[in-house]
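Appendix B: a complete holo record

For completeness, this appendix reproduces one full record from the ligand-bound portion of the collection. The bound molecule is glutamine. The inputs are the chain sequence and the ligand SMILES; the output is the full three-dimensional arrangement of the complex, encoded as C-alpha cells. No fields have been trimmed.
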Amino acid sequence: MNSMSRNKYRIGILSMQGATEEHAGQLRDLGHEPILIKNKEMLENVDGLIIPGGESTAIWRLMKKNKLIEAVQQFAQLKKPIFGTCAGLVLLGKSQVETEEPVSLKLMDIKVKRNGFGRQKDSFEANLDVKGIKEAYPAVFIRAPYIESVGENVEVLAAYDNKIVAAREDNLLVAAFHPELTDDNRFLELFLSMVGEKSVLMI
Ligand SMILES: NC(=O)CC[C@H](N)C(=O)O
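The structure of the chain with glutamine bound, as generated:
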C-alpha cells in the first residue's frame, strides 16, 4: 500500500444539480468521505472538489445564487484540486465555442465545444487510452462536450475520434465522460493522487 491510499480525504461534490450520488458512492468505495457542497462555507473543509455532470447552465445559475462562483475560483487559486466531469468540464474551461450564454469559471486554459458529439451520438461508450492509466478505460459519454483546443500548460490525457476528452492543468482535471457511472475507479484514483500530491505540499 502506498502513502496515498492510506490517507482518507474529504472530497467535496458540488451539489447544485446533476449526478452527485454516483460520485459519492465511488468515493466511499475507495474509503474517502464525500461532502455534498451546497454553500461556500462547506468548501472550507475539503481537500478537493468534484464538479459533476448535469446541465451546465442550470449548475451555473445555482452557483451564482449560492455565491459559489468566486468561492470555487478562490479554491482553485489555493491550488486545491478540482475535477470536472462533463458539465463540470464545461464550467472549468476558460472559453466556449459558439455559445450565446457562456457559463465559465475561467479557470482552465481550454476551449470547450458543448454537446460537441452531436445528437446522433447523444450517449455512447468507448474504450479509451488514458495517459497514466495502463489498460483501456471504459468511458461513458452522455451529451458530452469535447475540448477544441488547449493552452500550452495543459496536458492532454485522452482523445476520442481525434477530439480531446480528458486533460489536466496543474491542480485541475477534466473528463468529458462520466467516470462515476462505471465500476472502474481508475480515473477517480488519478484525481485522488492529485489530492495526495497537493496535500503533501501543503503540510
Ligand atoms: N452529461 C452532461 O454533463 C452533459 C453536459 C451538457 N451537455 C451541458 O453542456 O451542460
